[in-house]
């Protein structure tokens, strides 16, 4: 009995953290699966622990619903294990550095702009790309991202200016792919730029994205025919890290179902 009570306390605390995390980010207008889902899960945890006795009394009188309730928690446990395994993979992948010398091109995948500036996540990607570009001055840089809703400049334009201002990268080294709105299009549209530079898909390419995104980006690149690339993951800002990882979990599953890789 005491153990059950302790378990409910833990579930309540986890639920409160998830709810507040999602609620605060939604207040900052970050509406996506990575914020809505934690809020809903947290709310379910809070309600179920605060009303534990009533729920158990109700289920005791409705045995079919009790079995459904029990199976629901079992399935949730299996889902949670798969989610933690995915998070573990991302964490391990983020610690690895597979970058090789003599990279011919650095492709930086877009991640959104806000009021004409790179989002914190995009800024981390650009910082990583700038770091590589300084180490390997022979490489070209393709910045990839189209025109966002309500913006006057494309994401690629903002990215190029960021690299010039912060890292003093010469404009002649930066090539802009400014029509894409997804990872798939980022990589697909970049192929025309590579071809114009007389580079094939067998060229040594570093695809720079966020740590949580390397798995899916690599899978999409491989399907499109890139066969000599490495994915380089930039650290995700702590304020949005686990929400982004959660959203990516579902994005990876949906991409697999839709045959993106």
UniProtKB/TrEMBL annotation:
Any one cellular-component term (Gene Ontology): plasma membrane
GO biological process, one term: Gram-negative-bacterium-type cell wall biogenesis
High-level lineage: Bacteria, Pseudomonadati, Pseudomonadota, Gammaproteobacteria, Moraxellales
Matches recorded under CDD domains: YdcF-like
Organism: Acinetobacter wuhouensis
Domain DUF218: 104-250
A family per Pfam: DUF218
Top-level lineage group: Bacteria
Protein name listed in UniProt: YdcF family protein
